[in-house]
Design a protein that fits this description.
The protein is of the alpha/beta class. It has a single domain, classed as 3-Layer(aba) Sandwich (Arginase, Chain A). About 40% of the residues lie in helices and about 15% in strands. Strands 2-1-3-8-7-4-5-6 form an eight-stranded parallel sheet, sandwiched between helices. Helix 3 crosses helix 4, helix 8 crosses helix 9 and helix 10 packs across helix 11. The longest helix has 20 residues. It is globular and about 50 Å long.
Length: about 290
């Protein structure tokens, strides 16, 4: 296991670029027995929507994604498991590009939001509003066709789990429902159980012929009581045990090839409690995964 830090706030707001350093300070690498590998630095953030797509920092996000994809690819080539500590949700582009270069790949996406705004319709212009829309091959080719790899992920090979934002779903739900992605809101997780939800997502990937997949975790999927240090807070979310069962079942699958952790903002967590909660949740998930493999 090797940790890659992607110090970027280009797809959200300043502050989230400190995520990796904060989790490492809490002992994440030592607890996972992981080596700490490369750091991908991002250019300076701009709040101006100057790109024709209305996406903030579009050119810089593409540059970071290409460098991140190379770093993730190197870790994969060395036979290790890359853990990407963002940053914001735009780190998904580099991780997906690295896996796409390896063959038939999929995505399991844990997030409180569906993140399927066309950038021009996003109220903010932040890539963290639009990363799935772009990754599915829509919108600005600068990212949607990154390195000529359009789409970064085919929609039928994606499972979206845990969203709980009715406002965003009202804005983007019709477009999302027209895709072949599996979409499981928080309420359905509660109805069927966390482990059953994970198995459902894995079965969906089976049907798409997926050989390896990216597990992308946005910290806002967690209960707001555990993770208040995010920039767009929502009430509710996954509790610690639910998260461990869901994520641990996914991590126990032989096809999981890489992990992204995003969105936690240390600037909103002066005492560090939310960061410690996030580390604890991740360690619980890895422990559950290890227990399932015996």
């Amino acid at each position: 296991m090797e940790i890659i830090q992607v110090r970027t706030n280009l797809g959200l707001v300043p502050g989230v670029e400190r995520l990796g350093g904060a989790l490492l300070d809490e002992g994440l690498a030592e607890a996972l027995d992981a080596s700490v590998g490369p750091v991908v630095e991002a250019p300076a953030y701009s709040g101006e929507r100057t790109h024709p797509s209305r996406l903030l920092n579009a050119e810089a996000i593409a540059q970071v994604a290409l460098r991140q994809a190379a770093a993730v690819g190197d870790v994969l080539d060395a036979g290790r498991f890359p853990v990407v500590l963002g940053g914001d949700d735009s780190v998904i582009f580099g991780s997906l590009l690295a896996l796409r270069r390896k063959g038939a790949h999929g995505l399991v996406f844990l997030d409180a939001h569906t993140d399927f705004y066309p950038p021009e319709d996003s109220p903010t212009g932040e890539a963290s509003d639009s990363e799935l829309y772009l990754a599915f091959g829509h919108g600005a080719d600068l990212i949607a066709d990154l390195a000529g790899a359009k789409p970064l992920i085919v929609d039928r090979a994606a499972a979206l789990i845990g969203h709980r934002d009715p406002g965003e779903l009202r804005d983007t739900g019709a477009a999302m429902s027209a895709t072949d992605a599996l979409v499981i809101p928080l309420g359905e997780i509660r109805d069927t159980g966390a482990e059953a939800t994970a198995r459902r997502a894995l079965a969906h990937l089976d049907g798409a012929g997926v050989e390896r997949f990216l597990l992308h975790i946005d910290a806002d999927v967690l209960d707001d009581a555990l993770m208040p240090a995010v920039d767009y807070r929502l009430p509710g979310g996954l509790g610690r045990r639910e998260f461990a069962l869901l994520t641990g079942t996914l991590l126990a699958d032989d096809r999981v090839a890489a992990l992204d952790v995003t969105i936690y903002n240390p600037a909103l967590d002066p005492g560090g409690a939310a960061g410690r909660n996030l580390v604890g949740c991740l360690l619980d998930a890895f422990a559950h995964a290890a227990a399932r493999t015996y």
